[in-house]
Amino acid sequence: MAKAKSRDIRQGRLDPAQYLENFSDLHAPLGQHEATVEADRCYFCYDAPCMNACPTAIDIPLFIRQISTGNPKGAAQTILDQNIMGGMCARVCPTETLCEEVCVREVAEGKPVRIGLLQRFATDTLLAANPAHPFKRAPATGKRVAVIGAGPAGLSCAHRLAMHGHEVTIYEARAKSGGLNEHGIAAYKSTDDFAAREVAFILDIGGITIAQGQALGKDISIDQLSSEFDAVFVGMGLPGVHALGLQGDHADGCIDAVEYIETLRQSDDKSNLPVGRNVVVIGGGMTAIDVATQVKLLGAENVTICYRRGPEQMNASDYEQEVAQTHGVAIRHWLQPRKILTDANAVTGIELEYTAQNGTLTGTGEALTLAADQIFKAIGQSFDAGPLEGTGIDLDQGRIIVDENQKTSRDGVWAGGDCISGDEDLTVVAVEHGKLAAEDIHKTLMG
Prior knowledge:
Structural class: alpha/beta
Mean pLDDT: 94
Largest sheet: 5 strands, parallel
Number of helices: 16
Distance between the termini: 69 Å
Helix content: 25-40%
Number of strands: 19
Shape: globular
Strand order of the largest sheet: 4-3-2-5-19
Low-confidence stretches: none
Strand content: 15-25%
CATH superfamily of the largest domain: FAD/NAD(P)-binding domain
């Protein structure tokens, strides 16, 4: 077994200028001319498949036509009418598996209209102009709504409620708002503190107060909020992280990928982050891709993602897998962790078992050992249902059950985002949940 003294974990593996280059925008934004040319590629389809594929039902042909006619601010208004976080979604949405996948040009030519970049061009143009908030509040209703969580679902819900004239208080456990947009996505996907700027833009409508450092089950409760407010929306996300369930899970160098990504995103100096020479990432979703790619950009020499199933079962899209591989990350399939190798309670490697799919996933008995200075756990996040015990809110497989209007089993309580059962864990989906819940809350409160 390798000795702990052979581990190579260091800060500052790269020149200072290299960090700035590595963590700059993954995609350069479109300029005015580029956006006009790209918009002219759109066929402006009737019953457009791209619009049907958008979880928030943005009128994509309309906003692209507005760009093509020189009206990007109008295009932004069209986008934000349906998705108040359209700027962030333009950066982090898997458009390659949503609107762009069904674009007529993609189907016919294999080259879709770059809808995501056009959406970013429009929303960035509006935000850069720093105009008055594009939405006006309705007259005050006198109704008060509590929102738990200042992530995409909570912010979307709060904005729509404020627009209808309700007073909203958001209770956020962290010191900064934004949820995964602020804490959990790759730094190169959202640069220049965009997540915080988007939160500020949303709050500009007025009528929304955020109480930071207020965690459900510790500082606040459902019963308390239900007694003080006319309605409650739960958008608390997935605070827990799955463990590997192996001896050595808590050894030095065995790291929660979500926590590491958060540290990286909040770091002003990437050279201060310690990174190993040999890194293994366990998982097959976006978190695995994000942490693996960023560790490589921090200067790791060998980075390997190990996933227990085949490439077609990976939650990360083909495009995201390609991004990782383009940056030098190796992706190996049909491998599951069997044993974490340690010395003096420090990670030195990992033993994996080859798997096969014959109806069910099984191990073949054949093993592979990889040297590792660091092992990142990216096998999914879990919902902490403890704060909901005794509240009358029903759960399914550990997540909140809601109806088509995002209403829970408890009167006066709605929910949305990653904490609910039966939908995709995407920013754009969470935004839609918040919007739908707000409309039903408004309808309910106004009789």
